[in-house]
Predict the structure.
Amino acid sequence: MVKIKNQSGSKETGPHYPQVSFNFLEDAFSILKLENPCDAYLDLTSRLRKGAKLTDFLSQGSIPTNGFLISERVKKLLSDFDIIDHCFMQANVMDGKGVIHEYFWMHLDDNDSTRHIDYKNSVFKVVRGLTVLNRVSFKDEDEMIFYKKHKLSAVDILDAEKISIKPSLLCKDLFVVGKFTGIVISDRLHDEFISSKITGLDYNKVSL
């Protein structure tokens, strides 16, 4: 398995992060609050920042949910792979010359993703700032939800120190588990990205 994220400040992307700025920030931010953002009409058009370069995956800093801003050719490539629940929202990008390029926001629906955690083989940590206060384990998702609601301080964060994922999710070619895993792809999809020379991503091998 391979964790993916947007490149930042590379020769491929240009020196600026993020690469694009949305024209209507309120629409971009609203994706976090909407129950079904895929059914909403949102203007996600953006402009390429001066000095930034067009890549297949473009970095952005305004949509605070799991997903990616992707080119048309990535969208077509992904149609042959098994991805968690998702949708594609039109999000065209204008470059510095005024040319419009077809892009999409790939929204990943991870609302029920924590049910795929193998809790008995996972270890979590309570973090305050840069300090790990303690480590905790849970027998199931209900116990974790209870802990977050009744025992976790408002200034602390529950993070994963060791995360184990059930086969029901590991069989997917692209998935994410809340804020615990980052966005992960299969080796098969990774190989396809490399052979197709998909641009704008950093890759990191992971064990789950």
